[in-house]
């Protein structure tokens, strides 16, 4: 039998970890330096991650402090943050940039929860697509007489159990993030 279930499990695991990375970038009223992970700054003509050109710290619960290694980068960092979808206004004092997180309103929290649920639904769709690919491969192997009907049923059951496991993990991650966002 030449069917490797591990390949599909790895894909489902990547889908889950991708969702968790996306959740890190959703701000829940507290300052989290990971919301800046996708920010790229033009550093001598090369797009560079913000973390590689500045020191990023959280001096207070609702503030991120960005201290560029070179003062000349301050304007560029400020411009990039303003044009990003973070919805934050940087405060520039000439040496560092402060990002202050306003207290989230009830409406904004509800919007964020909708976004959390949408991302979870997209991850579930991805997991189901992986299941479909696995089942297609299993059916092709059965048609080519590489595996028997019984083996096909066993493999499809294992793939379904794997799918259920990852859908459950996605639901757990969604619940955790939703409650984090709604906590005042």
Q: How would you summarize what this structure contains?
A:
The chain is α+β, with helices and mostly antiparallel strands. About 55% of the residues lie in helices and about 15% in strands. The strands form two sheets. The chain has a four-stranded antiparallel sheet with strand order 3-4-6-5, with helices on one face. A two-stranded antiparallel sheet has the order 1-2.
Please explain how this structure is put together:
This protein is of the alpha+beta class and 184 residues long. The chain is 55% helix and 15% strand. It has four helices and six strands; from the N terminus they run H-E-E-E-E-H-E-E-H-H. It has helices at residues 5-24, 74-83, 106-143, 149-182, and strands at 40-43, 46-49, 54-60, 63-68, 90-92, 97-100. It has a four-stranded antiparallel sheet, covered by helices on one side. The chain has a two-stranded antiparallel ribbon with strand order 1-2. Strand 5 (90-92) and strand 6 (97-100) form a beta hairpin. The radius of gyration is 22 Å and the shape is elongated. The termini are far apart.
